[in-house]
Amino acid sequence: MTITPSQTIGPFFAVALGRADSGGDIRVEGTVYDGEGAPVNDAYIELWDGRRLARCPTGEGGRYEVAIEQPDAVYIDVSVFARGLLQRLVTRIYLSEPDDPALAGLFARQKDGVLRFDVHLQGEHETVFLAL
Amino acid sequence: MATDPPLLYPDYRSTRLRAPRRPLLELPPGPVELSGPVFGHDDVGELDHDLTRQHDGEPLGERIVVHGRVTDSRGRPVRDSLVEVWQANAAGRYAHSIDDHPAPLDPNFTGAGRCLTDGEGRYRFVTVKPGAYPWGNHENAWRPAHIHFSLFGRAFTQRLVTQMYFPGDPLFEYDPIFNSVRDPAARQRLICEFDLGETIPEWALAYRFDVVLGGTPTE
Question: Given this model, what pLDDT does residue B217 score?
């Protein structure tokens, strides 16, 4: 059976897709950058930790921030959607250092209740994106 | 041939600086990815599925029913799953502050809907047919009429955001987003079918759009 292909979320998703914090006191925040290091202010970020969904758009300066509860898993799944992304991009925020060195760049050390996780869509600092 | 479009499709200009250039790292999905958010009827309001009844008056345009079934790649229904849609109004304008297309806004149309699939994976919306609109991708670029769909499925691996198009649109051959799907059979999956059986006489035309989710977790 042919699966339904993905298409871009486009620039107007905020008509329907809003912000949903999952209600804890850990803040996940970061900036989304394109291949020239310019901020991406029309992306949509979703976090899934196996129990709770949190999601929000990026705004001015490409920044996003969302509140979550302390996850049980060792990582949080991240989906990145944006105009210009024909498929969502998937990555992970590791809460402790991953064993696999290929994933080392995805480790985010929690500091004062904040997890900082920037997303570089392309370029020298390109984020490790996953095919699961 | 791959079903999904490539990340880099230069005819769609915005992919050039946004598509990752390194290959994706292949990992087996773990328990986190094999689960997904569960939605209930509390998450959906009574009129959320009817985009023509969310304001005091009725929106302008051609009233339509859009319905279909959500299944996994083995044909099994995806039940109790959240489906979200958004679209331009009948004149081709989104109720979004960054849309500067000089077509009229409709005070009676926001263009956002949501519903849950039923026990057989079926969903149903009532809306108006969206208009085509110009965009800045290339000289005289126009998007074919479309409705954006967001689906969660049952697992993180099944998450899908896509667009539904209408049969016979003359703009198909000029649209790089539609044509980024290189496999013609997969591209066909993005086009709904006119469905006479579901039209409501003297009231609304109907279109059927079935969605097949990939990334089916083994059970």
Answer: 66
Which member of A48, A82, A130 has the closest CB to residue B24? A130
Q: Which of the following CATH numbers is that of domain B29-213: 2.60.130.10, 3.20.20.210, 3.40.50.2000, 3.90.1150.10?
A: 2.60.130.10
DSSP conformational letter for B218: P
Q: Which residues of B are catalytic?
A: 94, 133, 143, 146, 148
List of chain B residues whose C-beta atoms are within 8 Å of the C-beta of residue A49: 32
The torsion angle over the Cα atoms of residues B57, B60, B61 and B66, rounded to 10 degrees, is -30
How many Å lie between the alpha carbon of B157 and the closest alpha carbon of chain A? 7
A13-120 in CATH: which number? Answer: 2.60.130.10
| Interface predicted TM-score (ipTM) over 0.90 | yes
Task: Judge whether residue B210 has pLDDT over 90.
Answer: yes
Contact residues on chain A for B32, CB-CB shorter than 8 A: 48-50, 73, 75, 77
Overall pTM surpassing 0.90 (yes/no)? yes
B139-157 burial: b if 16+ Cβ within 10 Å, else e: eeeebbbbbbbbbbbbbbb
Ordered by start, the domain boundaries in chain A are 13-120
Name the percent of chain B lying above pLDDT 70.
98
